[in-house]
Amino acid sequence: MILKFDNRFFGEALKESSKALEEDCLKNLQLLIRKECLGKEYTGWMNWPKQKGFETLKRVKNHINLLGQPYDTVVVIGIGGSYLGTKAIHDALSHRYQEALALSGTDLSTKPIVYAGHNLSETELIELFDYLDHRNPIVNVISKSGTTTEPGVGFRVIKNYMEARYGKELASRRIIATTDPKKGALRGLAEQNGYHSFDVPSDVGGRFSVLTAVGMVPLVLAGHNVDALLKGADRFFNSLYTGVQEGTLERLEAFDAIRYAAARLAAWNSGFRVEIMAFGEPKLAGLVEWWKQLFGESEGKDGKGIFPAGLNCTTDLHSLGQYVQDGVRNILETFLAVEETRCTGTHRIERSLRVPSGNPIDELDYLEGEYISTINKAALRATEAAHHEGGVPCLNLKLDTISEDSIGYLLAFMQTACAVSALTLGVNPFDQPGVEAYKINLFGMMGRPGFEHARDKMAGLK
Ligand code: PA5
User: Fold this and answer.
1) Which residue of 84, 118, 119, 148 sits with most ligand 1 atoms within 8 Å of its CB, as the best mutation to test the pocket?
2) Which pLDDT belongs to residue 56?
3) What whole-number distance in Å separates Cα of residue 276 and Cα of residue 307?
4) Are 208 and 174 in contact (CB under 8 A)?
């Protein structure tokens, strides 16, 4: 099994109410599969690998093989769903000190990916150029709408940098655009400047787009095994669709996505308002960021939705652990655990580390000879039991290992669980009307034509 769901620390009452909610979740799953649900026009990510994924990947690989431009660094320009998935996968599967090691000439199995257009920090852009001056970058600008301010501004500056460095003609061959098949400013810019482009499918929204060209292009450029990623996702959808068609879903591994959705809803109905995703392997921090966007933007509307937060164990146990143990009891916690944490380090050579002998004065002799990963796994379980005792209902999702395959499975699992959970909560999982509010104020403050009403409202607040 790639991913195992375990609710042993969830509490008897919540386990019972979760069970009772599985039927509603299954009904919404059927609607999702039949494309009859709320927001049905954005369900193209369901069964994506078989529908269009493998075929899209062939085109992406083809283009990258024929690129003819040497590069050693990938610059991803995008925000929200246009970059979080790529970062999640890349961080989980790459060396933590990749950029520095690459600068020192160490041969790594993947190339560094650096990001822009995910904030409006001038300092970050300037510092990025300091890094790029020592690298040979290729750029992938990603925006489904093609009109988002942050990547728009980031792209203007990086386009200038690339043109100044390589000349207009060569720069245009080193820029790939991923955007809406037909509309938006980025589509127009790609056509005008002759950038090669890939589509964000019109029936897939940003936060559900990681397995489309949005994630594929930068991940293939960086050297990841995207076939395995898609195969992992395909394994989930296979189990899901087979189970639904044959009426055997409850016996298949994909049913855990329904169990997870039902458990969250049971917690919501009982007054729990925050879900913490706790993880013991720091490489999973990016995946938790991706998960936060997925659930936060999909469910948080109409005054409803559990607020998603992250907890990096054991680091955060020494900062936030006290609150989780003893603070307001409106928190549920999901532990994202990993069975086998193999370190592949540089060159993908497996390595491990045990606690060495030392001075008994530190009272750590009882740990001598233990793998650090064994202690880390024990710490995560110990935390789960402690938080449960402190009144936090806990769920556990255990990945067999951190690999392209298992991450692909997890992404498909989470997307499905999220859509089912939001639909059962009674909200449209695929829109994000609330994101517009700050944009309108910003447009007013910065003098965008047509936003004079917002300018007047914001006057004096600069
Ligand atoms: O999930 C979503 O749709 C959003 O979070 C978008 O991904 C984000 O706002 C970026 O939008 P765009 O890709 O249009 O620039």
Assistant:
1) 148
2) 98
3) 8
4) no
Evaluate: CB of 150 within 6 angstroms of ligand 1: no
CA–CA distance, 452 with 261 (Å, rounded to integer): 43
pLDDT per position as a tens digit, 409-432: 999 999 999 999 999 999 999 999
Give the residue from 250, 258, 302, 311 showing the smallest Cα distance to 281. Answer: 311
Strands, E assignment, 292-342: 307-312, 331-340
Compute the distance between CA of residue 49 and CA of residue 411 in angstroms, rounded to an integer. Answer: 12
The Å distance, Cα 394 to ligand 1 centre, comes to 31
- Sheet of 394-401, strand order: 3-6, 394-401, 331-340, 274-279, 307-312
| Residue of the CA atom closest to atom 2 of ligand 1 | 206
What confidence score (pLDDT) does residue 161 get? 98
Question: pLDDT of 185-204, one tens digit each?
Answer: 999 999 999 999 999 999 99
Q: Residue 372, by phi and psi: left (phi above 0), alpha (psi -120 to 50) or beta? A: alpha
Ligand 1 neighbourhood includes 429 CB (under 6 angstroms): no
Please tell me which residue in 297, 299, 384, 404 is annotated as part of the active site.
297
The mean per-residue pLDDT over the stretch 129-145 comes to 97
Is 306:268 a contact under the CB 8 Å cutoff? yes
Query: In whole angstroms, what separates CA 55 from the centre of its chain?
Result: 22
| Ligand 1 centre distance from Cα of residue 246 (Å) | 36
Domains and CATH numbers, the chain: 3-40+229-434 (3.40.50.10490), 41-227 (3.40.50.10490)
